[in-house]
Amino acid sequence: MTTTAPLPPKAEQPPPVRSRFAAARPAAGFAVAALALFACAPLALSDFRLGLLAKYLCTAIVAVGICLAWGRGGLLTLGQGVFFGLGGYAMAMHLKIADAGPGNLPDFMQLYGSATELPWWWRPFANPVFAVAATVLLPMAVAAILGSFIFRRRVKGAYFAILSQALAAAFAIWLVGQQATTGGTNGLTDIQGFFGYDLNDPVNQRLVYFVIAAVLLLLIALARQLMHSRYGELLVAVRDSEERVRFLGYNPANVKLVAYVVAAGMAGLAGALFVPAVGIISPALVGIVPSIELVIGAAVGGRASLTGAVLGAIGVAWAKTALSEEFPAAWTYFQGLLFIVALAFLPGGLASLAAVVRRRRAGRRLAGDTA
Prior knowledge:
Strands 1-2 form a two-stranded antiparallel ribbon. Helix 1 runs antiparallel to helix 8, helix 2 (47-72) packs across helix 13 (306-326) and helix 9 (230-240) packs across helix 11. The chain has helices spanning 17-44, 47-72, 80-100, 107-112, 128-152, 158-177, 179-182, 202-227, 230-240, 242-247, 252-278, 288-301, 306-326, 331-345, 353-370; strands at residues 193-194, 197-198. It has 371 residues and is an all-alpha fold. The radius of gyration is 24 Å and the shape is globular.
């Protein structure tokens, strides 16, 4: 009987170069983005242009949430303006109280109303901790209540999009009708301070920009972690085959609810940061049209790609500022056409353009080989 000698242990093979490069890409991209936002932009842009970029970055924060809810979960959220407005008004209410000083009413209440003291629902916002927490928790709470009713009744697709739009319209109409307590059509304007810092000082405006840029990068990292986690895979499964996920023992309503609530919190935080960056929040920024504009940016850049959604949101916001000045009457039509073209001819947005080109080239090579 012969015995075979044991085989020597196999030497561990180093991971392929390509896989190591793919693993390092997110960190490299994050470093490049941080360098561009914190070093290049402040050096290259004037204070005015940097203020505009801060405004654009706020829309990019909303796009991160849209990428998670729509790009990953298939939830076409056309009502993000509601959550953006809730966060913005929560922050603006605190800042207006702080600007008025102890015992004084905000200026618009003295002009439009006859009240001699703050309304009861304004008083908690005098506390800075409560106000900051409300900018995120209030939109998330509203989204949790609405999402529970919507998703548990299996409302999805176009019906979900229409309901979210109706919510945005109702919220804007309510704000306009409460002139004595919300500023009406004008909104809350002429905000001068931000937690003790004078917003008229360019140095403080740059500080606000840095805060917004830091929040954007942190939320991108958070969203990426969620999208590549087990929950992110489950969210994709719900998007592609909801009934199969239900048969596996999961509740698709809860899975979609988490994405919807997280996206609402990001939109609320974006609205809160928008207020010190621009100095105003009004119904014109929270209705149907602004909500659609936020979705257009993510769609054009690529709703399934965090990088594409962020760059698309910044690009569309910049185009609105640049082109609406030259073509004020035609910009809305161009914006709608951009949305239609992006969904019809490039559903994955500009982020998928390279993949589309590669597939077409591979198809041509295959057709040439079989000819």
